[in-house]
Inverse folding.
């Protein structure tokens, strides 16, 4: 007859059972650390954006639109005289950067 451990005689779970169920103390602490890290990441992700983000976002879109309007109203002479049609690219770039900022706004 095979020898039993004392823990088997008293009704406690054996080491093999504890390892199979994942009930070891080290394992539980590791799982709790993972859960805590996940909670911290979720809180960081769900934080609201600062107020300056909104002002910058809207400001870039309005500035880009104003750049394009000035370009058309001045018959390609302003805002930067030497850029010619690249002024359109600059205006649209400002609008696109502002629009891209909206994807991070919460």
């Amino acid at each position: 007859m095979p020898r039993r451990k004392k823990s088997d005689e008293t009704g406690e779970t054996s080491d093999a059972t504890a390892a199979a169920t994942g009930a070891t103390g080290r394992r539980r602490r590791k799982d709790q650390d993972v859960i805590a890290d996940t909670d911290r990441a979720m809180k960081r992700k769900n934080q609201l954006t600062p107020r300056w983000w909104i002002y910058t976002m809207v400001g870039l879109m309005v500035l880009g639109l104003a750049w394009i309007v000035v370009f058309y109203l001045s018959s390609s002479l302003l805002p930067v005289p030497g850029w010619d049609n690249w002024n359109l690219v600059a205006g649209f770039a400002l609008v696109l950067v502002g629009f891209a900022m909206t994807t991070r706004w919460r």
About this structure: The chain has five helices and no strands. Residues 51-73 form the longest helix (23 residues). Residues 71 and 79 are 6 Å apart (CA to CA). The mean pLDDT is 80.
